Structures are given as C-alpha cells and as structure tokens.
C-alpha cells in the first residue's frame, strides 16, 4: 500500500478518504511540521502539505527518493519552489475552483464590514456603551453606486464582481490582460489607473515576484480619500507600513483584511487602528470549501500514485515525465 504523509489534521471526510486509499502518516500537531518534514517523509510515496509548509529548493532536494508527488491543500503555491520541484521530478498539485465561492463571500463580508465600520459598532454594543440613538453615530458608507476596483480578475475576482453587482456597485478591474469572462466590467491597463478610480479597492491577485509589494505608498496615495481597502489575497502584496499610515491619516476610510505578512504573527499596530475589520485568514473556512479542497488534493495523489495517470491540476507539468531513479549497485 502506498504511504502518504499529511502535515495537518484534515476534516474527517477528507482524512477518511485518504486512509481508504493510502497508509497515512498524520502529523498530529497544530503547529506547522517545519524541519520534521524530512524525517516524517521517510518511506512515503506522497505528501499532502499545507500552505504554511515551506518547501524551498533545499527541502525538496533533501526529500527521500520515495516521494514521487506532492499535493498542497491550497490554491496558492508561493510556499513551494516549483522550479526546484520540477528539477527533482516531483509534480505539485493544488486545489483550484472549489474555494472560489467561499473566498468571494469573505471579500463581500469584509467590504460590507469595512464600509459600515461594523467591527467598531459591534465592539461598542458588546462593551455596554451603545447609548441612546443618534442620527450622527455609527455612520458608514453605502455601496450602491460605488466603484469597486478588483486587482486580479481570476476565479475569485469574478466571483466578487458578480456578487458586487447585486449591491449596485460598478465593477472595474486590472489584470495582466483583459479577461474574456469579464466583458461587462471596465478594464484598466495599469494598476495605477484602477486605484485612482476605486471607491472600494479589493486585492485578489496571486503572490508572484511581480505582485509582491505592488500595493505601496505611492499607489495607496492614488486611492480617492476615504476609499475602502480590502485584501483577501496574500499579505506580501501590500506594504503594511504604508497601509497603516494611510489608515491612520484617514486617507483610507475603511479597511478589511483577511491576510497579513508573517501570519499568524501580525503587526500589533493593526489591532489599534480605527475603521478596520480583521479576520484570521478564514477566506476558505467553510465546510464545503475545505472538504472540496481535501477531495481534490487526495484525488490528485490517487490518480498519480495509484492509477498512474495525470491529474488535471498540476502546477509543474514538466515534472510529470517519467523520472529515472538510478539504483545503487
């Protein structure tokens, strides 16, 4: 029976499916497996890793030769060196599509909360300081007629755009190129142009060398004063010092964040900021999404390791070529 290492406890239906197909070695702790990955991977044919597991070139090169494939329980793959994995002949599979709706819904949750400053209103109620009704208290922004700028019009961006239409928002976007499925939305050829025209700005782009740090002080200054800023992508796309400054000065009128640099250790200044809703990276945290992600991750390993076929979601197809393992005399 093929042996599979899973680096974090998964939802029960997913774990059961893995155990039905493989001999499973399960890392039982909540903390990332870290340096224990290599000894735990000994004798394993496949790995099912989390987005918090860093698989750099050095780690991949030191994996036991028995490891033939890796599934990541995520859409993003910035935690894995794909070039190194390809050179090692290890295909990497991810879990697209199934979490798009959940993350898009989280984006709308943050947009609404940031625009209406719902976190502060709830905190006031919970602290017992609601007080008498006032026509000038708890004032926020209405979304109807506002321009929503989406940076990164992939599956999640499209999901956000379609939902925003129900709130009467005007959707505009910036992508590397015009998206054929976004023909009804205004396209901006540059990020600068989009930000200058966004009453609500939502970061949805993947983390790549080209996008990391793209949201800097100069670009944040282009947002109309009082704009709402939301990030459900990756924390490393944003210069957090510049963002905190823009919030503190009031240039940004409302903020909703689900992702941060150095998660789960976030900059403590965020906790003191006004007009800010903070979530602990829960974008895909629904039963439907997490079970779907697990199904894709396990199925990819079953298709490749047990059936000898090629799964549909491979991030480095060149690694699917047969690997020649030299035997020791």
Question: SSE layout and pairings?
Answer:
Blueprint: E1 3-6, H1 12-21, E2 23-26, H2 37-41, E3 46-49, H3 57-62, E4 69-72, H4 82-87, E5 92-93, H5 100-116, H6 118-126, E6 147-151, H7 155-165, E7 170-174, E8 186-188, H8 191-196, E9 200-203, H9 217-220, E10 227-231, H10 240-248, E11 252-257, E12 276-278, H11 287-306
Helix pairs in contact: 1-11, 5-7
Task: Provide keyphrases for this structure.
alpha/beta; Rossmann fold; five-stranded parallel beta sheet; 11 helices; 31% helix; elongated; disordered C terminus
Give structural notes.
There is one protein chain. The protein is an alpha/beta fold and 329 residues long. It folds into 2 domains: 3-98 and 287-320, Rossmann fold, CATH 3.40.50.720; 100-278, 3-Layer(aba) Sandwich (Rossmann fold), CATH 3.40.50.720. It has 11 helices and 12 strands. A 7-stranded parallel beta sheet has the order 8-7-6-9-10-11-12, sandwiched between helices. Strands 2-1-3-4-5 form a 5-stranded parallel beta sheet, with helices on one face. The longest helix is centred in the C-terminal third of the chain and has 20 residues, at 287-306. It is elongated and about 70 Å long. Mean pLDDT is 95; it is low at 325-329.
């Amino acid at each position: 029976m093929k042996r599979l290492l899973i680096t974090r406890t998964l939802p029960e239906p997913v774990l059961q499916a893995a155990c039905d197909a493989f001999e499973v070695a399960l890392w039982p702790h909540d903390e990332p497996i870290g340096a224990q990955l290599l000894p735990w991977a000994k004798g394993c044919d496949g790995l099912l890793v989390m987005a918090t597991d860093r698989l750099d070139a050095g780690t991949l090169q030191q994996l036991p030769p028995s490891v033939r494939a890796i599934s990541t329980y995520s859409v993003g793959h910035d935690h894995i060196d794909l070039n190194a994995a390809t050179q090692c002949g290890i295909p990497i599979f991810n879990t697209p599509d199934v979490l798009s709706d959940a993350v898009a819904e989280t984006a709308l949750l943050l947009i609404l909360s940031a625009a209406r400053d719902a976190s502060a209103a709830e905190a006031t109620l919970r602290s017992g300081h609601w007080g008498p009704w006032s026509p000038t208290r708890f004032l926020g922004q209405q979304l109807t007629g506002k321009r929503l700028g989406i940076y990164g019009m992939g599956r999640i961006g499209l999901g956000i755009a379609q939902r925003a239409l129900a709130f009467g928002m005007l959707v505009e976007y910036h992508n590397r190129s015009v998206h054929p499925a976004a023909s009804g939305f205004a396209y901006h050829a540059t990020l600068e142009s989009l930000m200058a025209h966004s009453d609500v700005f939502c970061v949805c782009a993947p983390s790549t060398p080209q996008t990391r740090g793209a949201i800097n002080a100069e670009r944040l200054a282009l947002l109309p004063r009082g704009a709402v800023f939301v990030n459900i992508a990756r924390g490393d796309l944003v210069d957090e010092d510049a963002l905190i400054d823009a919030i503190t000065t009031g240039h940004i009128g409302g903020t909703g964040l689900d992702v941060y640099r150095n998660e789960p250790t976030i900059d403590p200044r965020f906790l003191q900021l006004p007009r800010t809703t903070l979530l602990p990276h829960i974008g895909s945290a629904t039963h439907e999404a997490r079970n779907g992600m697990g199904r894709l991750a396990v199925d990819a390993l079953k298709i490749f390791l047990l059936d000898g076929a090629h799964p549909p979601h491979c991030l480095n197809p060149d690694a699917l070529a047969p690997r020649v393992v030299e035997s020791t005399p």
